[in-house]
Design a protein that fits this description.
Low-confidence stretches of chain B: none
Largest interface: A-B, 79 and 72 residues
Helix content of chain A: over 70%
Largest sheet of chain A: 2 strands, antiparallel
Structural class of chain B: mainly alpha
Order of helices and strands of chain B: HHEEH
Mean pLDDT of chain A: 91
Number of strands of chain B: 2
Order of helices and strands of chain A: HHEEHHHHHHH
Shape of chain A: globular
Number of domains of chain A: 1
Shape of chain B: elongated
Largest sheet of chain B: 2 strands, antiparallel
Low-confidence stretches of chain A: 228-242
Oligomer: heterodimer
Number of helices of chain A: 9
Radius of gyration of chain A: 19 Å
Chain lengths: ~240, ~120
């Protein structure tokens, strides 16, 4: 029952390119941390811990996509829907760092590459899709599920092409780039569908049980939440007489 | 943090623990999309050692922390594969929740009077 190594190992991409992406990932995560503070309140902070733990668990569940090929959830889109893009990128990074340091999955040298692909590119692509789709799709559990499904496929394929880009820059073997790009894209469309089904089930369930905990339902609205106004009025009146 | 949120978190954590501790044992053991791509072009023996061909994995270097007690999603010293995988998953979920949740909690925005 060995769980396979799941992320980029050491030596696949050369040290220079790996170091460049480590610096890039650190800078982007610092920016995410700065933006995340505005989102992290008493409700979102523990929720973000749960999202990270859940992504860790589900990443262990490899599902078969082709004979001899499996895939697992990366988690970017799931995190975006539940805790937003900035905290979401940090959640996925937390998982990748723990997997690298404690479970020896994903090379230490390659950590910047893995964070760039899965936590940054995958999450960013998922975010763009979620923000766009929620303008047209209904903000219901099923609408949210459909959004998560579509955004997951795009996010996973985008993350896989992040690896192709890194391999193009610093791959230590001379394999044909179109072949690498095509193979990665092909398998990751299937993996993305699997991830999408898991993400859709998860976010639709949370949206049914606790819609107030779904970041995408609270924040990606075209109009401000109307519930705030009647509550704020007495305070505004008493405060206004100052 | 309200009690209702506490129940939701406990429920979610329980689901994660069951997935990592139990369901992980029926996960596919085929290489994932990235690993399968990295292996294409090479032939392997029963132990997974490369026996010939050209592939990305030819240049793979060992993980710096491959000797760790949880390396490879198992627990060193536990021979039962189900127990080893399951327990390592449970430990991973708890550490991720504690570390992730702890850091997020410490840096959260504190607005007095707002839930």
């Amino acid at each position: 029952m060995d769980v396979q190594a799941m992320h980029i190992a050491n030596g696949i991409v050369n040290g220079t390119v790996s170091a460049v992406f480590a610096v890039f990932a650190a800078l982007v995560l610092a920016f995410c941390g700065w933006r995340a503070r505005a989102d992290l309140d008493d409700r979102l902070a523990p929720m973000a811990g749960l999202v990270a733990a859940f992504i860790f668990a589900v990443q262990m569940l490899n599902f078969q996509v082709l004979p001899g090929v499996s895939g697992h959830l990366l988690g970017g889109t799931l995190a975006v829907v539940l805790v937003g893009p900035w905290v979401g990128a940090l959640c996925v990074s937390t998982v990748l760092i723990i997997q690298c340091l404690l479970f020896a999955d994903g090379g230490l040298t390659a950590l910047g590459l893995n964070i760039t692909n899965m936590a940054i590119i995958g999450t960013a692509a998922g975010y763009l899709l979620v923000a766009g789709l929620l303008r047209v799709l209904p903000r219901t559990p099923s609408g949210l599920g459909a959004t998560a499904l579509i955004a997951s496929v795009v996010g996973v394929v985008a993350a896989s092409q992040g690896f192709v880009f890194e391999y193009w820059l610093g791959g230590t073997t001379q394999l044909s780039l179109p072949w690498v790009a095509g193979t990665m894209a092909g398998t990751h469309v299937l993996i993305g569908i699997g991830e999408g089904l898991i993400a859709a089930t998860t976010v639709a369930t949370v949206a049914r049980v606790r819609p107030d905990l779904v970041y995408a339902l609270r924040r990606f609205r075209p109009q401000p939440p109307p519930a705030e106004t009647p509550v704020a009025t007495p305070a505004a009146v008493s405060g206004g007489t100052r | 943090m309200t009690r209702r949120l506490g129940w939701f978190l406990a429920g979610g954590l329980l689901v994660a623990l069951l997935l990592a501790g139990v369901v992980s044992n029926v996960a596919s053991s085929s290489p994932d999309g990235l690993d399968a791509t990295a292996r294409q072009g090479c032939t392997f023996d029963a132990q997974g050692k490369i026996t010939g061909g050209t592939c990305m994995l030819r240049r793979e270097q060992q993980h710096q922390l491959a000797g760790g007690p949880l390396a490879g999603y198992g627990i060193r010293g536990i021979d039962n594969p189900y127990l080893s995988t399951g327990l390592s998953g449970v430990i991973g979920v708890l550490i991720t929740f504690a570390l992730g949740g702890g850091v997020f909690w410490l840096v959260r925005r504190r607005t007095p009077g707002k839930a």
